[in-house]
Design brief:
Blueprint: H1 2-15, H2 40-54, E1 55-57, E2 63-65, E3 71-73, H3 74-87, H4 90-102, E4 113-115, E5 119-122, H5 127-144, H6 152-166, H7 194-204, H8 207-227, H9 268-279, H10 282-298, H11 322-332, H12 338-350, H13 357-370, E6 395-397, E7 404-408, E8 414-418, E9 424-429, E10 434-438, E11 445-453, E12 456-464
Antiparallel strand pairs: 1-2, 3-4, 4-5, 6-7, 7-10, 8-9, 8-11, 11-12
């Protein structure tokens, strides 16, 4: 009997694997290639260096990411949220998000530069930060649920609504570079995150809008490549929606008037590769292969990458570093050449600039994707109000438990609990996707929890210790 109980326990623990996905996830994407030499220990080492060198505690549980010794930028906070949520570093994630919220403007987005913990020195938002932060909140809702002190789900929806209202140009679906800056006349293609948009649409039941923003991103990228006779996916740092160079870029002091592929544009292959790896988007595949082939064929390999190009492919940079190497390595995941991907992974690993905020942060983000630790959570794959329970991921944890169980299930489901003898213990409607069931007053044993949504249901077995 004891052996049977042990087997049941093992089975249940496996079947009801916690919704928190521990690091390393080592996810194998349905699309593209994975480096044969990938190792999540590389991602861990990069994360530990990043956290040690660039995070700093404020007060009241707040944390900031150091852009330099005294300043923090919203981009860095959002990068940190992505890294910490995938790493499962909840205390740091919560501290970064609280810092973000402490420093928002009237539109609900973080002022882009802060001195220390609270002095605003750069007003209004930078859209890439909002996009990364909103998606990180979706992952946090998946990782830890939203019944604690921070409701990640509601905060994600609120931030996504702010992005839609203030950072997408009305009636054009053009992503603006900020809430109080930019329109079709000045755009930053490296902010485009079409994979996030698809997740936002599913998460907020607004797929038509966000899919249109994703489609417009590819229109602008392709316009920019076409009108400027670009090679290999080398988008310019800044442009208009037409693809032409923006006359507003030079007065703003952007490098080379925003006409070249430098430290803004270099992130584009990473962001677009994600859309192929997660969703298999054909436009993402086409772009990623162009970028990968530029390195593999035109440059003759990853070790020849430098930090800047004209759009025709001629060299203007001089340094071989992670922001450029790693983004092209991500593109190689869609590039159909395993040897080149493996070489790109090894090349990124060999870069070593632990004291450079931008370079090392991006190296760490790239290494998370390359090792399968930057993934699409299942909670962002189906709409909350159109949730097929047979296709959804019903999770329940911890199991076994001495008292409480947390159930992740569609909203407006009915959760029914039965005793070991088959008697009805409780029945309730879910008000959110995370519901707590407290069996502290019940006897130890095997309980059945039935989750019903519409005409469909699933039953989970739990052990109360």
């Amino acid at each position: 009997m004891k052996n049977l109980f042990l087997l049941v326990t093992i089975f249940l623990c496996y079947e009801n694997y916690s919704q928190t996905k521990p690091f390393p996830a080592n996810f194998i994407f349905n699309n593209g290639l994975m480096a044969t030499n990938k190792n999540s220990l590389d991602a861990t080492d990069n994360y530990n260096t990043w956290k040690s060198n660039f995070t700093e505690a404020c007060s009241n549980g707040r944390w900031r990411v150091k852009f330099n010794s005294s300043e923090t930028v919203s981009e860095g906070i959002a990068y940190g949220m992505l890294l910490s949520v995938y790493k499962g570093d909840k205390d740091l994630f919560d501290g970064l998000w609280l810092y973000y919220k402490d420093n928002v403007n009237s539109n609900g987005v973080m002022n882009w530069k802060i001195k220390g913990c609270s002095e605003v020195v750069g007003n209004n938002g930078a859209t890439d930060a909002e996009l990364d932060a909103a998606f990180a909140l979706i992952v946090a809702d998946y990782q830890w649920g939203s019944i604690g002190s921070i409701n990640y789900k509601n905060d994600a929806k609120t931030l996504i609504a702010a992005i839609k209202t203030h950072e997408v140009e009305a009636n054009t679906f053009v992503l603006k570079p900020g809430d109080d800056f930019g329109q079709s006349q000045i755009i930053n293609p490296s902010y485009f995150s079409p994979a996030y948009y698809r997740a936002f649409g599913a998460f907020t039941n607004d797929t038509a809008f966000w899919n249109a923003v994703a489609s417009k991103s590819y229109v602008i990228i392709n316009n920019n490549l076409t009108v400027n006779n670009a090679v290999g996916g080398l988008v310019s740092d800044w442009c208009e929606a037409s693809g032409n160079y923006s006359p507003e870029a030079q007065p703003r002091g952007y490098v080379n008037a925003g006409k070249t592929y430098t430290y803004d544009a270099c992130r584009t292959p990473w962001r677009i590769a994600v859309d192929y790896l997660w969703y298999g988007t054909p436009d993402a595949k086409t772009y990623s292969k162009k970028a990968s082939d530029f390195v593999r064929i035109t440059l003759g390999g990853t070790t020849n990458i430098k930090d800047g190009y004209n759009q025709n492919g001629t060299l203007i940079g001089q340094w071989h570093n992670a922001p450029f190497v790693g983004a092209f390595a991500c593109a190689a995941m869609a590039g159909e050449n395993q040897a080149h991907l493996d070489a790109s992974y090894a090349d990124l690993k060999s870069t070593n600039e632990p004291g450079n905020y931008f370079n090392h942060t991006l190296k760490t983000l790239y290494s998370f994707l390359l090792t399968g630790n930057f993934y699409l959570p299942p909670t962002a794959t189906l709409s909350n109000d159109d949730f097929d329970i047979e296709k959804s991921e019903i999770t329940l944890y911890p199991n076994p438990s001495a008292d409480k169980f947390i159930i992740y299930a569609p909203e407006n489901s009915t959760i029914t609990v039965f005793s070991p003898q088959g008697n009805l213990i409780s029945e309730q409607k879910t008000l959110s996707e995370n519901t707590e069931i407290n069996l502290a007053n019940q006897s130890s044993g095997l309980y059945l929890i039935k989750i019903t949504n519409g005409t469909k249901s699933v039953t989970k077995k739990v052990i109360l210790k």
